[in-house]
From TrEMBL:
An annotated GO BP: heme A biosynthetic process
Compartments (UniProt record): Membrane
UniProt entry keywords in alphabetical sequence: Cell membrane, Disulfide bond, Heme biosynthesis, Iron, Membrane, Metal-binding, Oxidoreductase, Transmembrane, Transmembrane helix
Source organism per UniProt: Enteractinococcus helveticum
Membrane topology category: Multi-pass membrane protein
Transmembrane regions listed in the UniProt entry: 21-41, 84-103, 110-133, 139-159, 189-213, 233-253, 265-284, 290-313
InterPro entries (alphabetical): COX15/CtaA_fam, COX15/CtaA_HemeA_synthase
Main location: membrane
Pathway: Porphyrin-containing compound metabolism
Protein's recorded name: COX15/CtaA family protein
MF annotations from Gene Ontology: metal ion binding; oxidoreductase activity
A cellular component annotation (GO) from this entry: membrane
Length: 338
């Protein structure tokens, strides 16, 4: 005989660890993207407010305390607040792993991506510690940022595939392809080059940042590069990405592309135009803090958008039943054929 307490516990287990792809799984996928992009924005806020050394030690905030103290002032609060967000990322990552745990045998790639999202969190914490120990060395700060951007891309792929799995179950239509419309060699090459060029933009952008005035602390070391030169190098791949996006936009109306493919391309064009306008404005107006912060928001959007374009034109991923669904469907298929 089961008690109501046992039933409630069983229900909570099924919610946290479903045997299929539920709304909860989809929520966690979206939360993974938002949180990974959000850490880029909060990290930018730390740098822009000169709070990079607000906590002078790591893993402690001060030599005598793991938390900020009144003596550390507002900079200590900002830096310690950013450190606390790591626990939010960890909580989402753990819940994501649990949500995919029971489907891992049939959806190994998705489960592996959730593991990667979790394992990178302690690695990022260590990189953050090295950042403090090196007094915000711009190369280490760049590594910290690039790893976060990579995780935005991984989370985007994970959420996009979970979305496809959800659509397959809501429409009862297997298999659903992530690339659900036509793609040819030109659109595939353009999508790949856009994605690669996007990473070139991000990497050179860290050099631009490391050569600029917002180092996270007045005493932080800076790159000895010509800022105008590296800024132009940073902008060049953006022109290439824009041209290729226009090529894809023209091509997709000459092909049997899906609504999701068209939405992905237009979203990317909108994001890249927004980011370019913000970038030009901040460059010609002395890098105002709020505008630079807006540019940091755009970085997360660009990473998400270029990953989506890559996925909808090149992905081979198709949905499939989970192990539990195969067990349920098996008898039905047997009866139908009898």
């Amino acid at each position: 005989m089961t008690t109501s307490g046992d039933h409630a516990a069983h229900s909570w287990v099924d919610v946290l660890m479903p045997r299929t792809f539920t709304l909860w799984t989809m929520i966690l996928g979206v939360a993974s993207v938002i949180s990974q992009a959000g850490i880029i924005v909060t990290g930018g806020a730390v740098r822009l407010t000169a709070s990079g050394l607000g906590c002078s030690e790591w893993p402690r905030c001060t030599p005598d305390s793991y938390v900020t103290t009144p003596e550390m002032g507002i900079h200590g609060m900002i830096e310690f607040g950013n450190r606390l967000l790591t626990f939010v990322l960890a909580a989402i990552a753990v819940l994501m792993i649990l949500a995919l745990l029971r489907v891992r045998k049939t959806h190994r790639s998705l489960f592996n991506m959730s593991i990667v999202l979790f394992l990178v969190i302690p690695a990022q914490a260590v990189i953050g510690g090295i950042t403090v120990w090196t007094d915000l060395n711009p190369w280490v700060v760049s590594l910290h940022f690039i790893v976060s951007a990579i995780m935005v891309s991984v989370a985007t792929l994970l959420a996009h595939r979970i979305g496809a799995e959800r659509r397959a179950r809501l429409t009862n239509d297997h298999p659903v392809r992530v690339q659900d419309g036509q793609s040819n060699s030109l659109t595939r090459v353009c999508a790949i080059v856009i994605y690669v060029a996007g990473w070139v933009v991000l990497v050179i952008g860290t050099v631009v940042t490391g050569s600029g005035p917002h180092g996270g602390d007045p005493t932080a070391p800076r790159h000895d590069f010509d800022q105008l030169l590296v800024t132009r190098m940073h902008a060049a791949p953006v022109y290439l990405m824009t041209i290729l996006a226009i090529v894809v936009a023209v091509m997709m109306y000459r092909m049997d592309t899906s609504q999701r493919q068209r939405r992905a391309v237009w979203a990317f064009i909108a994001v890249i135009v927004f980011q370019a306008l913000v970038g030009f404005y901040q460059h010609f107006n002395g890098l105002p803090i709020l505008v630079v912060g807006l540019h940091m928001v755009g970085i997360g959007l660009v990473t998400w958008a270029m990953t989506m374009v890559l996925d909808v034109f090149t992905a081979k991923y198709t949905t499939r039943p989970t192990q539990a669904e195969r067990i349920v469907e098996g008898p039905k298929e047997h009866l139908a054929s009898a």
